[in-house]
Design a protein that fits this description.
single chain; alpha/beta; Rossmann fold; 2 domains; 11 helices; 11 strands; about 45% helix; elongated; binds 6-O-phosphono-beta-D-fructofuranose
């Protein structure tokens, strides 16, 4: 293997730059040429590529976003689009490709392997919704961003004696809500994986208020939907003034935490090693802080689900 390509795809996440840096520097360390593909699969189809060197990735480990930019490509979903991508890979002499992104991006990588280009998937998404790995790059940073927001909203919540709903990202996954909610001492955590009972949420709020609690924070995962309606219902049922904050894309930005930088560095470097060992079609991951890799198919089929023990704990601690 002489030339390794790298791209970021899907929603960006803090730590993607650290992963790009690891791919570029370890490829060069092992004597390979590296090509950076801009704008994910969209750029691959259109040949937006440049050779990268040690300096291309200087001063990026601490930066949010992705220097290679990213996109969600409709065209790559078609056979014609993938043929164009394959052609561009051949023109640039790319023998192996590292795709940094979420499950949709990994499905694209799997298709490229089928077309004869060995690929590796490095999990980059704030959602932490890939179940074969304990952590995805960006999740820890997003949780810390939400924690910061909880602290700020708690100040105003206590000043007014209100209930505050904070809607967080995660697509269909409740991990950001769960971990930020536990770490931030939220009164209730509402996630798509667990059926919730609005009366339980309200009764907790009333009990808290009756024993003199000034603030009330409810973390709501976006996958549940209906934040504004839930807010209205809580206000009607408890008589507490209720406000809803949708945190949105603020959760996707910012300097990555040390944890995200470290797992990004480990998985990016290991992806290159695996390509050099002649492996293909593998998804990198983290288990017990060790770097692991599994076949893409296994990654897609791993469904050991939501961390119910932690959810139970958060409920116990917020009685
Ligand atoms: O997958 C990451 C994510 O931020 C999700 O949490 C969210 O649902 C989605 O992307 C938002 O996508 P976009 O930035 O395209 O609006």
């Amino acid at each position: 293997m002489k030339t390794i390509g790298v791209l970021t795809s899907g929603g960006d996440s803090p730590g993607m730059n650290a992963a790009i840096r690891a791919v570029v520097r370890s490829s060069i360390y092992h004597g390979c040429k590296v090509i950076g593909v801009k704008q994910g699969y969209h750029g691959l189809i259109n040949g937006f590529m440049d050779e990268m060197n040690l300096s291309s990735v200087a001063d990026i480990i601490h930066r949010g976003g992705t220097i290679l930019q990213t996109a969600r490509s409709e065209a790559f979903m078609t056979e014609e689009g993938r043929k164009k991508a394959l052609y561009a890979l051949q023109i640039f002499g790319i023998d192996g490709l590292v795709v940094i992104g979420g499950d949709g991006s990994f499905k694209g990588a799997q298709k490229l392997t089928e077309l004869g280009i060995p690929t590796m998937g490095v999990p980059g998404t704030i959602d932490n919704d890939l179940r074969y790995t304990e952590y995805t790059i960006g999740f820890d940073t997003a949780v810390n961003t939400v924690l910061d927001a909880i602290g700020r909203i708690r100040d105003t919540s206590a000043s007014h004696g209100r209930a505050n709903i904070i809607e967080v990202m995660g697509r269909h996954c409740g991990d950001i809500a769960l971990y930020a909610g536990l770490a931030g001492g939220a009164e209730s955590i509402i996630v798509p994986e667990i059926q919730f009972d609005i009366d339980n949420v309200c009764s907790k709020l009333i009990k808290g208020r009756n024993r003199g609690k000034l603030h009330s924070i409810i973390l709501l995962a976006e996958g549940v939907g209906g934040a504004l309606d839930i807010g209205k219902e809580i206000e009607e049922k408890t008589g507490m003034e209720t406000r809803v904050t949708i945190l949105g894309h603020i959760q996707r930005g910012g300097s990555p935490t040390s944890f995200d930088r470290i797992i990004a560095s480990k998985m990016g470097a290991r992806a290159v090693e695996l390509l050099l060992e002649g492996k293909k079609n593998r998804a990198l991951g983290i288990k017990g802080l060790e770097t692991i890799d599994v076949d893409f198919e296994e990654a897609f089929n791993t469904t050991n689900k939501f961390d119910e023990d932690t959810y139970r704990l958060a409920n116990i601690l917020s009685i």
